[in-house]
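Thought: the user asked what RING-type E3 ubiquitin transferase looks like in 3D. I have the sequence; next I should run the structure tool and report back without guessing.
Action: structure_tool
Action Input:
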Amino acid sequence: MHNAATPPATTSSVSTLSEYSGQQKGYACNVVNASSTVTDEGFSDYISFAMPMHDASEILPLLHDAMNSKIDIFDKLGEASTKAEKHQKQAFDESRRREKAEEEPILKEDKEALAMENGIIEQMKQEMDALKRDRYDIIDKLVSEQKETLEQQVDDYGGIVKDLEDTLAASKSLIHSQKLEYEKLKHERDSALKDADELHKEKEKTLSSCLSLTWNTEFTLLEVQLATQNFSDVLKVGEGGFGRVYKEASGLVYEFLPNGTLEDRLACENNTLPLTWQVHTRMIGDICSALIFLHSNKPHLIIHGDLKPANILLDANLVSKLSDFGISYLLVKSSTMSISLYQMMNPRGTFAYMDPELLTTGELTTRSDIYSLGIVILQLVTGKLALGIGRAVEDALEKD
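Observation:
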């Protein structure tokens, strides 16, 4: 923007002639006051004079001419000042027009840029509004989906809870019924144990009386002949180491054991089923009990001398009983020795079950039966044959 210079002010004022007449000391006075101020010239005049009446006729024409000349100058100055003001105004207007013309493209560009910026801002605002709407729509959609999912999960969990409650109720009912059944079975068990105890006591009494009768029962030769069909080989169970004994005047009669020998059961003779571990364990206990009874016999202990599976018989309940005491010995404890032994010149028995010390020294002691028992136990545990079983067990232990 350019500021146009303000044209200088030009002021012209002319006081015309004022006349008056008066009488003062015989003079007629004409007073002419003329004042003129022209600011662009930088001067001011003030004229005041008084003259006698008789000189006025001469001076007034001159004065009028001077005043007219002065007025003409003032008029020209006024016209020049007016023209200058006009030209100055025109120059100012032209300058303003040019400035306006120069400013219009800039203003137009500014307006266009502002309009473009406003358009961009409006577009961005619309895009932001659209994004907000999309975000709100997505949030609403997600919330709706999550709500549906949660409602479905609540329904599913409700079904699961109901199933669990039903299962819990059924379990409680089952527990209650099982508890009642347990109480019933417990009562029946207690009753059965009581009855079994009574039966056991009664059986012990009966067995005691039967044993006393059995041990004291004597069979005549005729009864034995009838029972054995005259000692028929068809009914013969086995033979002892000393051969058949038929012609003696008296003999021993043993109970019949239907399950045969332990050797037959270990070999599953006649397609018999293998014995269980519980039966094996019980058999070991039975054999140990029998040996304890023999080795603690009073006044003289007894050594079996030929303990092996073939000499272990099984009754109807698979209870083990020792048999074949053909080479058993009664040992008398010496006063000079801490153990009882029997010196044998020719040891007898089954080689695989014989104590190595007996073979080397010929001394038969209770340890001889214990060694044979160890071989039998190894057979029950491993199922292997007696010959070489000790070495096989040692090799297995070394590998482990």
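Thought: the tool returned a structure. Summarizing for the user.
Final Answer: Structure for RING-type E3 ubiquitin transferase predicted. The chain has seven helices and eight strands. Helices lie at 56-215, 221-227, 262-266, 277-295, 356-361, 366-382, 389-399.
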